[in-house]
Structure formats: structure tokens, C-alpha cells
Amino acid sequence: MVLIRIYGNNSDLLIDRKNELNNIRILNKAGYTHCIYATFNNGFAYQFLEGETLTIETIRDPRVYPLIARRMAEMHCLKPENEPEPKRAFIWEKTKKFMQIMPKRFSDPLKQAKFEMLISPYMVLEEEYHLLENTLSKINSPVVYAHNDLLLGNVLYNKEQENVVFIDYEYTAFNYQAFDIANHFAEFAGIDEPDYSLYPDENFQKAWLKEYLQRYNATNNVSEKEINKLHWQVTKFAPLPHFFWGCWSLIQSEHSHIDFDFLEYAAIRFNEYFKLKEEISSKLKLGYDE
Using one digit for the tens of pLDDT, what is the confidence trace for 57-79? Predict the structure, then answer.
């Protein structure tokens, strides 16, 4: 079976298609994903892989989540040929670009009224962006080769082979380790109607992070201190994915032809961003200075 992907309307505003194809080739060479059979002007043909996409139940299944943690660790350890590691994570320039092109107002008066009611003014969001950059860039989370969009639909679980495969590498780039993990944890909430009460609790996160660190550090001897440090970094990064995908969703609300309320979804993500920001600032009074 051959799959065909056709690019969405104006999706080149969001995605560097040349990088996407390069990422797939890098990860296919490493044995982590499908191969590409052919490319054309507005899409590509690629290999079909057996497996079921995850659900809000299977993503926390003890048979499944360790596979995801280990595969993410393996991906984070990759050093792609001819791809020098950047000193700066991609998230800041990408978010900045999103903010530059996301709509500041809509021609449809009803949509504009909804926009004003649901979304914080641009100046507020711009201040939050600079606050995020100034704060999170000082945490010293390693910059790794990251997927950056590990939602339920982008993980295939093959029960017979007892493995997982990641798909959709549209946003794959060098980025903070803690962002990729925090972004994945946020996706435990589901997609169409996200329920963020499903965000994994501290015990689950630490069990997940132990699996991750054992593979990332290539040792079974992972200290509690190492797990706690990474947990702290992931917790600090937890609001950023919501901010990033909030900006993304505003762009989609202007250009996408998909029958989905992207404006409402942007509001959900920004609301969760502000909620988490407040919770974290009140809970994490102490932590690592690294």
C-alpha cells in the first residue's frame, strides 16, 4: 500500500516542506520511520506502516508508554549527517514567525467579535513571548533533534511487533529536550476536545522520564536526582507548547479549509497557557539553578 499526502491550503506558511522531507529521509535511514517513494509539487508518496494511532487510554498503557519514551530518547540522541547542531533552539524563531503572520483582525465582523472576545490582545501575547524566551532559555535544557509534534495521531503502535513508530515530521528540528517531552505530555488530553485534566500526574511523568533517561543516557542506573531535574525542566516548559500551538491555530483559523473551529482551539490553548503559567509560578518556588 502506498500513501499520498497532499499539502493543505497555504500550509507552506507554517511548514518548511524541504526540511520535512529531509527529516523523513534522516529518520528512515536511522530505521525509525517510513520511506518516501516520490515527491511532487504539492505533496509526496510514502510507505504505509502497520499500526494503530494512540488514544487517551493507550498513550498511558504500561505496555506502550515505555516504547514511546525510549523511541523519543533514541531520536534525541541522533546526530544527523551534514546537520550541525545549532546553538539556538528552533522554537523561538518559529514562534516569532507565527506571531508575525497570525491574523491581527478578521474581515468577517462576527469572526472579529469572537476573536476579540476569546484571544488576548497581540501586545499581551508579544510580552508573553519575550517572557518565555528570557525565562526558558536560562534553564539549560539540552538542544536535541526533536519531533516537536508528538500528538496521539503521530504515534503508531504495532501490538504484534511491540514497537512504536513516529510519523509526521513537519515540525522536526533541533529544539529543547524539555519542550518535546512537555509537548507530548500535553497531548495526553486528546485532540478534538482536549481535556487537560488528563495531563499525566507527577508519578506517571517520573516513571516515563525514567524510561526515557535510561535510553538517553544508555544506562539502567538513573538517579532520582536526574529524574527530578528533568521533571522540573519539563514542568517549567509545560506552558510553552500551548502558546506555540495557540499561535499556530490562529494562522489556521485564517487559512485552513478544514472544517474545524481553529479560533476556538486557539483560545483553549492560550487559556491553558495562562492557567499553567500561574500554577507553575505558585508551585515551583524552588528548583535547580542550572
Answer: 999 999 999 999 999 999 999 98
Residue 134 to residues 129, 152, 285: CA-CA distances in angstroms? 9, 30, 18
**Three cell numbers at 140?**
539549560
Pick the CATH number of 51-283 from 3.90.1200.10, 3.40.30.10, 3.30.420.60, 1.10.10.10: 3.90.1200.10
The residue type found at 180 is D
Percentage of the chain lying above the pLDDT 70 cut = 94
pLDDT, tens digit, 9 for 90 and up, residues 209-230: 999 999 999 999 999 999 999 9
d(CA 265, CA 172): 22
How many angstroms separate the CA atoms of 112 and 240, rounded?
Answer: 25
Q: Tell me the DSSP string of the chain.
A: -EEEEEPPTTGGGT--HHHHHHHHHHHHHTTSSPPEEEEETTEEEEE----EE--TTGGG-TTTHHHHHHHHHHHHH---TT-PPPSS-HHHHHHHHHHHHS-SS-SSHHHHHHHHHHS--HHHHHHHHHHHHHHHTTS-PPEEEE-S---GGGEEEETTTTEEEE---TT-EEEEHHHHHHHHHHGGG-SSS--GGGS--HHHHHHHHHHHHHHHTT-S---HHHHHHHHHHHHHHTHHHHHHHHHHHHHHHHH--SSS-HHHHHHHHHHHHHHHHHHHHHH-SS----
Where does residue 122 rank: exposed (0-12), middle (13-18), buried (19+ CB within 10 A)? middle
Sole residue written with cell 495526553 = 188
- Which pTM was predicted? 0.90
Give the three cell numbers for residue 226. 536526574
Sorted by where each begins, the domain ranges of the chain are: 51-283
Residue whose C-alpha cell reads 517549567 in the numeric block: 236
Q: Are 132 and 141 in contact (CB under 8 A)?
A: no
